[in-house]
Amino acid sequence: MNQATEEMLSQSAEDVLAALAFAFVMPGEEEPVCDKIAKVFIRFSGPFSGTLYVTVPCEIVPQLAQNMLGLEDGECTESMQHDALRELLNVICGNLLPRLAGPEPVFDLSTPDVSIEDCSVEQDQKDDPDVKVRLPLEEGWIEIALVTDRENA
User: Fold this and answer.
1) The pairing of beta strand 50-57 with beta strand 131-136
2) Strands (DSSP E) along the chain, which ranges?
3) Burial per residue of 26-46, b for 16 or more beta-carbon CB atoms within 10 angstroms, e otherwise
4) Which of 40, 56, 75, 144 could be bridged to 71 by S-S, CB 3.0 to 4.6 A?
């Protein structure tokens, strides 16, 4: 993958964050340290196959979910927060794949999965990402990583 793929990944995430979660990339913002992260991933297959990952600090998940669902503080359950993360990833993936493959190809998407992990623990990388971007937000950050079946990508 190349710089153009990184730009498409970054732009897809920025567009979806702004439109869906009212969260905006703030270049130059310092990234706060977090205790726990939420990691969500979705698998896709079609002209090429792969997995798209989104990782965010757990501290910002309630605000992202509240923005997406139009709820006030305290109205958003953990289940709703996880559903919002799944939908955020689903839409980012749906925006990214046509940018990578064009408007005609059809992809099958899995149901996104969410896990909560410690920030301090080094994550096992079963898949080496082709492209990974970390975008600073007004509060926190979001990291998006794309892993493809390199033979067909």
Assistant:
1) unpaired
2) 36-45, 50-57, 108-109, 113-118, 131-136, 141-148
3) eeeeeeeebeebbbbbbbbee
4) 75
Could you list the pLDDT tens digit for every one of the 153 residues in the chain? Answer: 589 999 999 999 999 999 999 999 988 766 667 889 999 999 999 999 999 999 999 999 999 999 999 988 888 999 999 999 999 999 999 999 999 999 999 999 999 999 999 986 545 445 589 999 999 998 889 999 999 986 544
Domains by residue range for the chain, with CATH: 3-147 (3.40.1550.10)
Tell me if the pTM is above 0.70.
Answer: yes
Residue with tokens 């905006």: 24
**Other Cβ atoms within 10 Å of 79 Cβ, number:** 9
Distances (CA, A) of 74 to 65, 68, 77, 115: 11, 14, 8, 21
Residue 89 phi, psi dihedral angles, 5° rounding: -65, -45
